[in-house]
Amino acid sequence: MSGELVSESGVREMIGWLVHVIEAAGALIIFVGAIWAFARFAMTGLRKRSLIGEFNKIRLSLGRFLVLGLEFQLAGDVLRTAVAPSFTEIGQLAAIAAIRTILNFFLTREIAQERAEIERDQKAPVSRAAAA
């Protein structure tokens, strides 16, 4: 008996399973967001002729799903390299993390811009009515 509670291969196997669960959760979040956005887009299109106002709200919500899903995917990548990573795995993680971080940055920035635009559009009619 070597005194180890869990072997390295057992830890690797357990982490591999956890990585699959976390990555599946990220993929599910993105999938649910895409289905939800499509359904909302389709329902809005059937009820209204003008989608411009609702379109930005739908994009904003989809962007939130994408950001959350990407965070789960990145968490899975980090967890994958938690046990005795090789230099190749560290390099791959760095590249994947950089790509996902850049995607996340631009999605978050676009969400903030969309939110500001929606708030500005909602306040504009009130300001015009007060001026009249």
How is this fold's topology laid out?
Layout lengths: L7 H40 L4 H29 L6 H45 L1
Structure write-up:
The longest helix is centred in the C-terminal third of the chain and has 45 residues, at 87-131. This protein has three helices and no strands. Helix 1 (8-47) runs antiparallel to helix 2 and helix 2 packs antiparallel against helix 3 (87-131). The N and C termini lie far apart (86 Å). The chain has 132 residues and is mainly α. It is 86% helix and 0% strand.
Which key phrases capture this entry?
132 residues, mainly alpha, 3 helices, 0% strand, elongated
Compact summary:
The chain is an all-alpha fold and 132 residues long. 86% of the residues lie in helices and 0% in strands.
Helix-strand category:
mainly alpha
Largest sheet, strands/sense/barrel: none
Order of helices and strands: HHH
Shape verdict: elongated
Counting DSSP E segments of at least 2 residues, the number of strands comes to 0
Count of helical regions: 3
Binned strand content: under 5%
Instruction: Give the CA-CA distance, first to last residue.
Output: 86 Å
C-alpha Rg, in Å?
Answer: 22 Å
Helix content: over 70%
Please mark out the parts with pLDDT under 50 across 5 or more consecutive residues, or reply none.
none
Q: Mean of residue pLDDT?
A: 83
